[in-house]
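Usage example:
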Amino acid sequence: MMISNQSGISGTTGGCSVPIRVNRNTRTDPTMVNVAGIMFGPNEIGIIAGPCAVESKEQLIETAKKVRNSGGAVLRGGAFKPRSSPYSFQGLGEEGVKLLCEARKETGLPFVTEVMDTRQVEYIAEHADMLQVGSRNMHNYPLLKEVGMTKKPVLLKRGMMATIEELLHSAEYILNQGNDQVILCERGIRTFETSTRNTLDLNAVPMLKHLSHLPVIVDPSHGTGHRWMVPAMARAAIAAGADGLIMEIHYNPDKALCDGHQSLSPEEFDRLMNDLVKIARSIGREILLPQPSII
Amino acid sequence: MMISNQSGISGTTGGCSVPIRVNRNTRTDPTMVNVAGIMFGPNEIGIIAGPCAVESKEQLIETAKKVRNSGGAVLRGGAFKPRSSPYSFQGLGEEGVKLLCEARKETGLPFVTEVMDTRQVEYIAEHADMLQVGSRNMHNYPLLKEVGMTKKPVLLKRGMMATIEELLHSAEYILNQGNDQVILCERGIRTFETSTRNTLDLNAVPMLKHLSHLPVIVDPSHGTGHRWMVPAMARAAIAAGADGLIMEIHYNPDKALCDGHQSLSPEEFDRLMNDLVKIARSIGREILLPQPSII
Amino acid sequence: MMISNQSGISGTTGGCSVPIRVNRNTRTDPTMVNVAGIMFGPNEIGIIAGPCAVESKEQLIETAKKVRNSGGAVLRGGAFKPRSSPYSFQGLGEEGVKLLCEARKETGLPFVTEVMDTRQVEYIAEHADMLQVGSRNMHNYPLLKEVGMTKKPVLLKRGMMATIEELLHSAEYILNQGNDQVILCERGIRTFETSTRNTLDLNAVPMLKHLSHLPVIVDPSHGTGHRWMVPAMARAAIAAGADGLIMEIHYNPDKALCDGHQSLSPEEFDRLMNDLVKIARSIGREILLPQPSII
Amino acid sequence: MMISNQSGISGTTGGCSVPIRVNRNTRTDPTMVNVAGIMFGPNEIGIIAGPCAVESKEQLIETAKKVRNSGGAVLRGGAFKPRSSPYSFQGLGEEGVKLLCEARKETGLPFVTEVMDTRQVEYIAEHADMLQVGSRNMHNYPLLKEVGMTKKPVLLKRGMMATIEELLHSAEYILNQGNDQVILCERGIRTFETSTRNTLDLNAVPMLKHLSHLPVIVDPSHGTGHRWMVPAMARAAIAAGADGLIMEIHYNPDKALCDGHQSLSPEEFDRLMNDLVKIARSIGREILLPQPSII
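Running the assembly step on the lines above writes:
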């Protein structure tokens, strides 16, 4: 493959133009992304779990403990929430970030939370262990540049309307600022199918790993929109070669302020983790456990 | 769930209106589909493999032997081919069906082949072990009725832009004629993504099994369009709960008259079958082997 | 543009591969399609209207008179209906064709009706003035070949899932059998948008006329799915350069057995025809009136 | 229609949930949007034109003069450009805004330019006559809130894969901050069709005007991606009822730094404006001319 320095595009692979810094051909080994000591990459499989939104101290701490006890390696939780309607719950904001810090202290789990505005990046980067750029912001180039200027790892979710090629170009914006700690996330795309919230495009897993050296994880919660479908698609994602999963868990899904219908209960999550260990072993991998010092 | 006899629709499940005869709630157990003794259903996983098109006696017999030796249970091969252009190879027609019968005699594998025209149904049903209604004909209602009037099992592929609900309604046309031996097949849908031939919608596997009692298989060859992606997505389909797979195999993919770029070589197929055995066991299932009398 | 006789593809125009017989470059002038004396082509604009389905003698004759009196040139009406569910009204069949013949006798309007099965082609070609291949059958190649072998003009609707390029390839199947009397019809495509039944792709009008010499018409009834939207999109289609329209009209839309929600009442149709005359003149064209001998 | 104050949603119209402030039912008359004296609304039709990106003083001033002389009412030009690749031309930034101010001084045309980052809003609102929120930022809620807090009119483009309902919810974010000067813009959506850059969804015009009191304009340049298609689709948009158009014009399209293939030359734009006058009159409207004091 030829590398063209002028355009920053290094040829086309599988019909995609793949930019130079994310391109698999520019590195000998796949990239490892270090989230407070938890290593995402080609070896063990990392599980990120937690509530859609941080709602209260009790909700977050109780859910976080369940996540850790079942083998989740990283906590997720939304403090600043992008909602289609201005009248929906918009998240607890900075108060939510503080609760995430408390949950980390209590459980030892590092956490990832979403950043939506260039003006929030500095504050969130100071507290969180990983910054999430959500699906609706995958094309928000000023935000991509801003997170690229931090030293924190970035979880970049594919836009619900974005091609695999565009996801790689958005990742390139981050790497181009000097930050190569980027995890790509397939979370379902918008199609004509309406029985599921999105169409989980697991083809993206082998394709992204073919084109890029970055780790790839999957979000089966948004990718299906139905709690009862999450286990099947979580297993499928691992079998397809994903380096991790991000899932919504709530200690009481029926009372969740958002996405309860797609959140696993702690018991469902625990059962799923047992299944994932078996699937991972069947393809010669292991689920990455929480750091020994934590448990 | 209420059953309305007037409309034939028995309530809505997961946002879908599910017609009465295919509806999961109308049977105690999942349906088993019997393809010349090979049983597709909730127990073992059946693998269908073979060339996109029947091209010659040598090509077909050699490929069929490889399929059987690696553990494929049913042979596939196109005799009448639906091609976008009138100038593309249209298949060998009845000559192709005769070669499929010879391959069956030689290897003991039953075969499935596509039927495109109501006028062909009688002839093909006389010779083939299963009739395939292809993606382009999922909405061809006269054809659905005609195959419903035969006693042969039917492999019904999802239209490339058909919803899960529409697939179930098309299956209902077949069951409504008295034939309940229908296998549903997810084979990829058309979306905005262009790096893959189709977007393989594995969400359809748990959704279809949730809504219907019919077995569900997956076609990772058309679902990806890239030979190197087939193993990852075949594994993912099994992990998602599919009851089988249909894959394109060619004894010399680079010389194939159609779909060579997405056909596995015999060696690739053999390696994949070994992987599938492990994946199946990790979820408590087994790959269905060719009938003992054959091997 | 080079013409390649081997593949039947004559180069690529606007990113499309355009087959040889439908290709604009292979004819000096646009093709005129003669529907019992009504000429569809680059000059006057032809309006096809009538009920979704033939329901009864009264319904059809009364609606046909309204169509003629308001300036419609061709009557439409479904006798064999492709319905997603086997439990929906499937049309009156041959009885419906007979009623269409009666309506023609009564009003002088030629009629177009849908053919779904290769075995129906001979019968319908004997009675109808134009054969419609519907959206669900655009990829039904045996049917395309069969209508290509008749001497009757063909109204070929774009598949709801078909690209512009695929529509041209399907038309090529008809021309390749010796029948060049083909009218292409944009009728809306399936997208993620759910507030309308389909997304009417008016881009297809200038694109198809750029690539092919065949006339292009638009179906704003299926393209919107809402009666109140039909006039706006009918006007837009003419302004975009369409050579005609096909619309659903019912003498009592609220009682229609199918598609009542998208059928115009006779009064709405009459008002729309007046508007269309003005739009047509503003771009230097005229609406084609029913044959003088008729009125 | 019931107005629910709790959710901010006032019932469902045409299958859409329409929020309260943008809802047609909450105002007696359609909203007029005042862009420096140019009134967008249900009366005259306003034309916005100019280059994709501001490239140089000469390019901008020469193009702006052509726009004004042919009857364009507002100048467009990108200073901060959202580009898929970090290696593409990113716009002249503040220097571009200064050139737009010069062009306004020279021609008397007010201008609209895109804002991508909450931190730019204050600066751009100080200089521009209208703020554009581009397709990629339709879901950027902090940005929507920020432009909602200014006193400047906002041109809100539909996301390339956003539903009509989501567009209305995004507009609601702006109105909810106290700014009701919002123009909605259909600019093409992403579908499976590849011969055009996007699928221009003109259905959105009557649907948006049915659901909301806000003016609706159309962008046939991005909606087609082909210069030669722009006139046909500009005419169609007006015939469908659009309150205006936004188009890319370049004084030398073949030398444009971006989007030259979809930019009209000044001569093409002038011819098109003559056609639009006729189309507008055929539906009883007029093209809004530049302010008398200017010419």
